[in-house]
Amino acid sequence: MAGMKRVVGLALLLLLSSVLFPVSASDWKFDPSLVHFYLYGAKTCPHCRHMKEVIPETYGADKFTYYELVGNSHNDEVLNNISRLIGVTGVPVIGITYNGTLVAVIEGEYKVSATPEIVETALKNNGTLLLLASGNYILPHNNTKAREIVEKLQYLFTKAGEPSETSTTPKKTHTTASETPADGTHTTTNGNDKRICGPALIIAIAMVPLFPRRRR
C-alpha cells in the first residue's frame, strides 16, 4: 500500500509540474548521456536489489554507482550524514545528477522510466528535488542556504562514498565521511558536534514544498 501511494504521489507531482511549468518539445530534450545515478543500498533489501538491476539495465552500467551499506561502516556513516541533512530513514536512497549537477534525491524504489520528467521538473524549477517518504520538496538553487545543502548532498553522493566492487566507478581509498571537500562544505558523524543540528534547522527554512497547498 505504501509503495502504491508513493507511485501515485510521484505521478501526481509530475502531472502538476507539466501543468504549472509547460515545456514544448523544442525547449528541452533529455540527454541520457548526461545523467548519472548514485545509490546507497543494502544487499538484504529487495527494493535496493531491484533498483540496482533496473537502473544499469536502462541507462548502462557506466551511468550507475552503487554504495553497499552491509559490512561497510564508512558508507553507513555517509548515509547518516545524508539523513541528518534531509531526514531520510530508509533505503534505497538515490541521488540523480544531470550534467554534473544534483537534480534529485529519491528515498525508496521509484519508476526509473520517470527519470526524464524528474530531471525536467528540477531544471524548470531551478532546484534539487527531494522525493522522500515524508513528502515531495525542492531545494531552490537561488536560495543561499538551500544551495549550501545541495552542495553538501552532491559531495556525499558523488565523492564521499566507497563504491562496491560491482560498481563501474573506481573505489576510493582516501576519502572519509567527515572530509571537507574542495568547495569548503563539511559534514560530520560526531553526535556531540553542534554542526549536526545546523543542517536540520537550515533545511526547515530552505526546503519548501514543491507544490504549496492553497489556503482555504
TrEMBL record:
Cross-referenced InterPro entries:
CGP_CTERM, Thioredoxin-like_sf, Thioredoxin_domain
Q: Where is the composition biased (Low complexity)?
A: 163-180
Residue span of region Disordered? 161-192
Entry superkingdom: Archaea
Residue ranges annotated for the Thioredoxin domain, each copy included? 1-128
Name the chain's protein: Glutaredoxin related protein
List the source organism.
Thermococcus gammatolerans (strain DSM 15229 / JCM 11827 / EJ3)
